[in-house]
């Protein structure tokens, strides 16, 4: 199957901003504010004293390396007197991977529709749902804030079903889950499976984490990308969202939450030691390398060109290859998957 010049899928998982707060004695939602701090950081960078990559020293005086490097940054800390804080977000789920949003080639559309239909028939969405559910209930989306004194996760689905995990700090991707947590995982997996494969309903859920913390503990919200510095503004700026009372509280961007939920790709190698965020080329930020480089022939575009063959294989064997799980996870993520236009192909 050749990719057509116009092909895109709308993402199936749409997360809102996650916001931090604590509850007053009257159960009123109170913001966790952002502090602005001026500090004198010591110089410690390689370029302060060396040039090039061969450890060639610069002509600097000892006093030059002792001068402070003034910085103006934003930070976030737990309000003294508060033992528990909360972080919550909403998630909408649509079965958008069943068909493309835009496709200007009927042959490509039919092939992709057939792939998704076969995948659904063989209960492939259950595998994806299980992985998303694991990231939700383990608190993966809290990022560095996941490391706290105690963590519980509560999910309320559009069916008004409450799914709870009491001690999420003990849960990990490859670890064994206790019986109550496993039951919660199965319930959420079943719900997400329906949401990813049925278009007859509107599916959504509200997720809330309760974190037991120490007074003055640091909180790690999203950091804003600053294209240019404002005069007199902080060099590091944290994300916030306005509460109903008009006060701003620390927050995560929806994209950061989504990145955590999408960290399910450990199909990139048979001995993979961690799940990567779903990406067409398997970008591994920790090692700064593409785990699905085109030379390995396991990237999304190399695999999707064999769509008809994958569908035929699944129909014959009734087994879903890991490559198809990866293809479908990319379609769930959504994006533009345009190939070269015929005109450009001729010019090449």
Automatic annotation (TrEMBL):
Q: Sorted alphabetically, which InterPro entries does this protein's record hold?
A: CRISPR-assoc_prot_Csy3 (IPR013399)
Please name the Pfam families in this protein's record: Cas_Csy3
Which domain of life does the UniProt lineage start with? Bacteria
NCBIfam families, per the entry:
cas_Csy3
- Its name, as the record gives it, is Type I-F CRISPR-associated protein Csy3
> Which organism encodes this protein?
Vibrio gelatinilyticus
